[in-house]
């Protein structure tokens, strides 16, 4: 006969009130813990399950209580909860039960990799049971009849363990989240993918690295994120489908990226981007521009993908009325977001002005690719487009005259195929390159002017448009040229310089964090701390205390 679980049961000793001793033994002034716990009680005797439930309620623990009459029923319940992504925190089980006893239940739970704390109740004070319980990872082993004070102490100990594990898990998750943002920020700024993976292997799961397949670059004309960053992620949630995996990362006060797990075609992504733009405009009253990447196969492509997105974002200067851009030229991509002839021609005029031959070749190749793929353009139209380009070249070539220009135009219009037209124009790009090499200082002088202004005014609000006006260039074009000269686009350069100055202040002064934030141009101290952590992997306070 099984022994009763309670040391004061009527069947075990005489008393006028079965609960009298319980009330005497159990007294707690505060509720334990800060979490709600799920507890499963497994025993084939209903009265014994009721006794444990009573003890639990008197302990003032915030719990949801589940019951099972044997190990088989308990294991089925645990499997169902696992499928629903629910869990039991504490398993309280008797040993001797029909169908599946307590030891078999614990073994089955262990094999199914169901994590929980386990407490065994048994009327058998045997060394072999205790030894087996230790081997199975059981948290505690309580003899029947149960002493209420012992039960209280055991539950207190187990809940403390749960809360400590929960705190450690939360801290680990927080460190993992910080590391993910630090990794992505570094990759988007040209960091080595393999180095970052090795550095973060303990804090970031393998699944993270190839989780995202599309990237959206979101850009504003002003320092939007420094003022609105706390609310922005909520706006993203409004447009994403339920269950969609994503990672939001702010790059600088004007730019952010949204990484999506989706591998959908451009049509659906365009709708998502347009919806995001509209939600942002409705919430904040300002427009943003969004560039959508092609499919990203793995994390090693992130630096290159960011470069392509920034090139695509150059379109916003030439097409400010369009808010979504994509490099996906396909039947499902609206013509509105494809780079048109006028945009490319304007970009090449800027390239010539800046003596930027590499960009000129790149934009020229894009123009050629467009006409290679489209057979429905008339020859006259194509020759007209390329003759206008040739005219711009001649306007910037020294020691040429109208007669030479007219001869080249005649050659172009009498060309029998598109390859001949391309060769004529490419030859003149080579001539421009040779001429520009004789006076290469223009671009460097303008970039140095911008850098010098940043060094002297980093405490003030700085915007790409403001700096572009100083050197009479398009904002997006200045950012593109700046990146070629420095390795960073302008917004990132400003942020990085501010962060370096902040790091210097943290090392060499006793200024408060909020004062450092203001001293480097950030009025929003929370945004400053977030930006510092993304740059260096630790918070400003942690850096001051320990360094990197």
Summarize it.
The chain has 548 residues and is of the alpha/beta class. It contains 24 helices and ten strands.
Description:
With 548 residues, this protein is an alpha/beta fold. Helices cover 57% and strands 11% of the residues. The chain has 24 helices and ten strands. Strands 2-1-3-4-5 form a five-stranded parallel beta sheet, with helices on both faces. The chain has a five-stranded mixed beta sheet with strand order 7-8-6-9-10, sandwiched between helices. α3 (71-83) packs parallel to α4 and α14 runs antiparallel to α17 (418-436). It is elongated. The two termini are 65 Å apart. Mean pLDDT is 78; it is low at 1-32 and 329-338.
Number of helices in the DSSP assignment: 24
Low-confidence stretches: 1-32, 329-338
Number of strands: 10
Please report which band the strand proportion falls in: under 5%, 5-15%, 15-25%, 25-35%, 35-45% or over 45%. Answer: 5-15%
Structural class: alpha/beta
How confident is the prediction overall: mean pLDDT?
78
Radius of gyration: 34 Å
**What is the CA–CA distance across the termini?**
65 Å
Largest sheet features: 5 strands, parallel
Topology diagram in text:
Blueprint: H1 20-25, E1 32-42, H2 46-58, E2 61-68, H3 71-83, E3 90-94, H4 102-111, E4 117-122, H5 127-135, E5 140-143, H6 148-188, H7 193-199, H8 206-209, E6 214-219, H9 225-239, E7 246-252, E8 255-260, H10 266-284, E9 289-292, H11 302-313, H12 315-318, E10 324-326, H13 341-353, H14 357-373, H15 379-395, H16 402-413, H17 418-436, H18 441-457, H19 464-470, H20 475-486, H21 490-508, H22 513-519, H23 525-536, H24 540-546
Parallel strand pairs: 1-2, 1-3, 3-4, 4-5, 9-10
Antiparallel strand pairs: 6-8, 6-9, 7-8
Helix pairs in contact: 3-4, 6-23, 9-10, 13-14, 13-15, 14-17, 15-16, 15-17, 19-20
């Amino acid at each position: 006969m099984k022994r009763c679980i309670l040391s004061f049961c009527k069947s075990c000793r005489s008393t006028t009130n079965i609960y009298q001793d319980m009330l005497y033994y159990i007294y707690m002034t505060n509720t334990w813990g800060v979490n709600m716990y799920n507890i499963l009680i497994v025993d084939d005797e209903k009265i014994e399950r009721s006794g444990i439930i009573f003890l639990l309620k008197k302990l003032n623990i915030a719990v949801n209580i589940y019951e099972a009459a044997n190990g088989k029923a308990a294991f089925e319940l645990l499997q169902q909860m696992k499928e629903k992504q629910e869990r039991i925190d504490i398993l309280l089980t008797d040993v001797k039960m029909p169908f599946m006893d307590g030891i078999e239940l614990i073994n089955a739970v262990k094999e199914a990799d169901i994590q929980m704390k386990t407490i065994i109740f048994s009327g058998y004070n045997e060394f072999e049971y205790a030894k087996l319980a230790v081997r199975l990872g059981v948290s505690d082993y309580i003899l029947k009849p149960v002493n209420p004070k012992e039960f209280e102490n055991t539950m207190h100990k187990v809940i403390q363990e749960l809360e400590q594990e929960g705190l450690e898990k939360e801290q680990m998750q927080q460190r993992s989240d910080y590391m993910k943002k630090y990794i992505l920020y570094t990759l988007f700024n040209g960091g080595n993918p393999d180095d970052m993976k090795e550095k973060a292997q303990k804090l970031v799961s393998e699944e993270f690295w190839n989780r995202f397949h599309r990237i959206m670059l979101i850009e504003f004309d002003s320092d939007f994120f420094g003022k609105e960053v706390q609310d922005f992620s909520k706006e993203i949630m409004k447009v994403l489908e339920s269950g969609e995996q994503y990672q939001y990362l702010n790059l600088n006060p004007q730019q952010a990226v949204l990484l999506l797990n989706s591998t959908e075609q451009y049509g659906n992504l365009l709708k998502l981007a347009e919806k995001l733009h509209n939600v942002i405009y409705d919430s904040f009253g300002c427009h943003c521009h969004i560039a959508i990447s092609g499919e990203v196969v793995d994390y090693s492509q992130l630096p290159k993908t960011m470069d392509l997105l920034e090139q695509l974002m150059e379109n916003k200067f030439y097409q400010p009325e369009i808010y979504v851009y994509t490099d996906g030229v396909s039947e499902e991509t609206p013509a509105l977001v494809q780079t048109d002839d006028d945009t490319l021609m304007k970009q090449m005029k800027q390239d010539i002005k800046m003596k930027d031959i590499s960009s000129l070749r790149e934009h020229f190749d894009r123009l050629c690719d467009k006409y290679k793929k489209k057979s429905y353009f008339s020859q006259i139209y194509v020759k007209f487009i390329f003759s206008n380009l040739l005219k711009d070249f001649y306007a910037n070539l020294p020691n040429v005259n109208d007669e030479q220009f007219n001869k080249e135009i005649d050659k172009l219009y009498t060309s029998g195929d598109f390859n001949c037209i391309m060769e004529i124009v490419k030859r003149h790009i080579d001539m421009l390159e040779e001429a520009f090499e004789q006076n290469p200082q223009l671009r460097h002088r303008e970039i140095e002017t911008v850098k010098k202004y940043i060094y002297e005014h980093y405490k003030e609000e700085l915007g790409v448009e403001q700096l572009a006006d100083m050197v009479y260039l398009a904002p997006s074009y200045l950012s593109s040229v700046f990146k070629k000269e420095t390795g960073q686009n302008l917004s990132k350069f400003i942020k990085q310089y501010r962060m370096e100055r902040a790091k210097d202040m943290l090392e060499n002064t006793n200024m408060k964090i909020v004062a450092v934030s203001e001293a480097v141009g950030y009025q929003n101290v929370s945004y400053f701390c977030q930006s510092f952590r993304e740059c260096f992997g630790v918070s400003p306070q942690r850096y001051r205390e320990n360094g990197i």
